[in-house]
Please model this.
Amino acid sequence: MFGHLVFAYFGINPSTADEQEDDSTVKKWMGFTQLNNGKQFIVGNVFAYRATNIGELATASDPIGPDNDKHISSIIQEADILVPCWGSRKKVPDKLHKHLDQLMERLKDSGKPIKVFGWTKSRDSLHPLMLAYKTPLVDVTPIKE
Model:
């Protein structure tokens, strides 16, 4: 479908999965990458702070982290297809919603193709965990008010 490309998935990491231990979401990204003829995928997090309780983002002194912007830029540069997939912003403390919007703008400013699995009622990109593998990646287009 897309050739042998590098996919970058951008989410919010409430788990403790890392480069050595996968979780269910990482396994879904693996499956979606293979189904779309990707050769590899990279994961970027809106917030560098990790916790199993996403509410902890509200009390973290620096949920973004000092190096996260640099890592996001590197991921955008390396990837061929950008896939925001963080799910509904309602799970994120209100004061941090602007960071979701800022990342989406950075992705758009890259000039690279942006695809999503669809949209939530809050107009955020769908999270892949509960989606069927037949769910297509679709081009990001403006959502009508």
